[in-house]
UniProtKB/TrEMBL annotation:
Key word Signal present: yes
Domain GmrSD restriction endonucleases C-terminal: 103-199
Keywords: Signal
PANTHER family listed in its UniProt record: AMP-DEPENDENT SYNTHETASE_LIGASE DOMAIN-CONTAINING PROTEIN-RELATED, SECRETED PROTEIN
InterPro entries referenced in this protein's UniProt entry, alphabetically: GmrSD_C
Name assigned to this protein: GmrSD restriction endonucleases C-terminal domain-containing protein
Signal sequence interval, chain numbering: 1-16
Amino acid sequence: MKLYIFLLAAASAVDAASAPMPAPPGIPSQSIAQTELSSLAVKAFVDPGGYNRDLFPHWSTQSGACNIREYVLKRDGTNVVTNSACATTSGTWVSPYDGESWKAVSDVDIDHMVPLKNAWANGASRWTTAKREQFANDILSPQLWTVTDNLNQAKGDKSPDAWKPPLTSFYCTYAKSWVQVKYKWELSITSAEKSALASMINTSTLQYIPAS
């Protein structure tokens, strides 16, 4: 798994993103993200009701005793140690949302880039449970990220027009990742969400390049 570092155009953001950071696969280029964003269905937000997190079975088995959560913790961390049950016991994680480094696994969460409840309200309520399980455990797109736990809690089910990560230099990548997930899973967006995403993509303050 390749690690990536940030190449920042804004000098003020260099210190916050100078350490190597991992990235999930499938983050599109700026131009592709813009094209994908323009193709997404724009609909008014309507909560269909009936949401329950259990309708998105998550942390499915990935391999042996390891589930998707443990897989992502290993993917995103360095010097990650697990026990015989594949539970992570130690490591180091750098949260791309704020650039903070953590050594206790209790200080990080696995965030769904597009929250499950947001997906439910924008098309996933019509899916089968099997498809919702695939969405909740998608490691082939930029859907799952290891982040500072309180930021995951602050984000909740909010879309980018209501919540953005504290690290402004991550805006572009955050928006490109959000768009890619919605595009892949054919989920709709609101007009406010589309405006926020377009603005964030256009910041274009960084790009991922392979770490040497």
